[in-house]
Amino acid sequence: MKPGRCIAWALAAAWLGFVVSPVHAGDRDEGRGSVSVGSAAGIPWEQLTPEQQRVLEPYRSRWNQLPPERQQTIARGAERWQQLTPEQQEQAQQRVKQWRDLPPEERQKARQRYEQFRELPPAEQERLREGYRKYNALPPEQREQLRERWQDMTPEQREKMKERWQNATPEEREKMKEKRREREQRGERGERE
Predict the structure, then answer these.
(1) In the predicted model, what is the mean pLDDT of residues 59-75?
(2) DSSP states along the chain
(3) pLDDT of 39 above 70
(4) What pLDDT does 191 receive?
(5) pLDDT tens, 105-158?
């Protein structure tokens, strides 16, 4: 798989997760406290805190015309944004820029993959998240080898690999991993058995 496609999927998942992840907000305090985003009504711009208004400045001119559900989704994202560290905010801004720079077809593919992911059972979603965390923990050289191996496969070989992995027991998966490590140590990158 091309590195750009891995990045596109990750960006889409991260961005969409950032925007739609629920953040539990408290009730609105007297004056200009935090606005509760749990109700179905819209949120007038004037009721947003100064911090929320700063984060949501790009929406200011059209905020009051947005549907209430959209306002609440965006407000949840703003609340979550405020909870991020400056480093996390910088990373998120970079991901958004990368997302915007993607061609429309790639963004559409990423959205479709994200929707497919959301339709999976929670246990399967967690299994995929764990696999992604493990993948990211690998040294860059090993990630590159895996990407190259995947890219070199035909669609049929990829499908066969997916099926084989999904149907394997945990013990069989460990044996498959061990065989792969042995091949990598010997420098083999040929066809799978």
Answers:
(1) 92
(2) --HHHHHHHHHHHHHHHHHHS-----PPPTTT-PPP--SSS---GGGS-HHHHHHTGGGGGGGGGS-HHHHHHHHHHHHHHHHS-HHHHHHHHHHHHHHHHS-HHHHHHHHHHHHHHHHS-HHHHHHHHHHHHHHHHS-HHHHHHHHHHHHHS-HHHHHHHHHHHHHS-HHHHHHHHHHHHHHHHHT------
(3) no
(4) 46
(5) 999 999 999 999 999 999 999 989 998 999 899 999 989 988 898 899 999 998
